[in-house]
């Protein structure tokens, strides 16, 4: 079943484009496998020509995911592209590199690991898989506890902020756990720890805090959550734990905010996920989940297989996967070391500050991201009566910039923002260029709006009309997304 639909293509055939016509002149069927083979040069050229219409990843400011690595690492990736990670007995060195990564990351997150102990964790495809695994561990632990106490264990729930990334909703739906979301409010776009703790009951398998909200990059207050939950646990006799979704922040906080307590230094934090492919600085396809200790990962979730050689414990959703990303993560950890990651993160923070300042100076936007947190700038129009951030984002595309615009979740959905993620490859020069292009875009849109106004076409929209427009736009987007799916 193909879940996604191409938006731009029409017709039944793929016509051989520019250079491929040197090799083939016949059109290829679009949705059926061609009857005949074609020369390898033709296949390459056809696909390469068609892909040219994709956006430029370096100008994709919507994504946290790494778009540039050093050529030496590209070489390692290419060399290991044919290794299936799951064949651990055949590729013991790759397995060893994964274990080293898990241990390095666990130490970075201050896991209480004794000198003769190894960390408990696993490499995943990304934070989504990592979160599914952590969630399953919490669910199973809670079920075991309830069963042993002779209590019902069929209605587990998880408490999060309404700002959680879609993977938490997926976890809840796929694995039948009720998602209890703390609502947001205008000006407060992360989970309020006090409200979260209020929502905890005996069926809560964990509270999930985010270190680096997807919407505005803000770090949630995990320390406060830990303290409030400790008090509630003491009062009720429950032992509700915390998971930290550090998809972005896990590779930022240790370098920029080493004093901030958000990790295993807090006793209730039992597991943490991080995306290797975000600020871990690896191309798409790697994440990590680390548990505080062996006791936090129920043994019955671990499968032992022996048909590939020796006994291999596995706890992942998928079986086969590539090895390249694991090797690339190891490359980054040893190549950059603590010092190198710190330099990269400081540079990102400084470039975010330049961009933030430039946007604020325009006087047209309210910045809703914080100075600390994930290096990104999220901003809303001060006045959306003549055009919206959706139109600004659309206009910016003419300059090649891909900047997402979206509305905040419940109960702040009337606030619409744009967000620019600052990655390692987003230089200060690019920040200055973006400020200039954004300034030009806004001036053009002002002039356009003024012309319409002079022509008598403009009427000042009421707040209600603006809200309705944003809601309609968003509904249409969601409906379109739902029909074309997928992530
Ligand atoms: C806070 C948060 N959690 C989880 C995810 C999902 O991460 P991944 O894309 O690595 O699966 C994201 C992705 O942006 C995120 O921002």
UniProtKB/TrEMBL annotation:
Name this polypeptide is given: Glutamate decarboxylase
Entries under Gene3D superfamilies matching the protein: 3.90.1150.160, 4.10.280.50, Type I PLP-dependent aspartate aminotransferase-like (Major domain) (3.40.640.10)
CDD domains for the chain: DOPA_deC_like
Cofactors demanded by this protein: pyridoxal 5'-phosphate
SUPFAM superfamilies: PLP-dependent transferases
Pfam family, any one: Pyridoxal_deC
Enzyme Commission number(s) of this protein: 4.1.1.15
N6-(pyridoxal phosphate)lysine, modified sites: 278
Key word 4Fe-4S present: no
Family stated for the protein in its record: Belongs to the group II decarboxylase family.
Reactions catalysed: L-glutamate + H(+) = 4-aminobutanoate + CO2
Protein's UniProt keywords contain Metal-binding: no
Species the sequence originates in: Eleusine coracana subsp. coracana
GO molecular function, one term: pyridoxal phosphate binding
GO BP, one annotated term: L-glutamate catabolic process
Keywords, sorted A to Z: Decarboxylase, Lyase, Pyridoxal phosphate
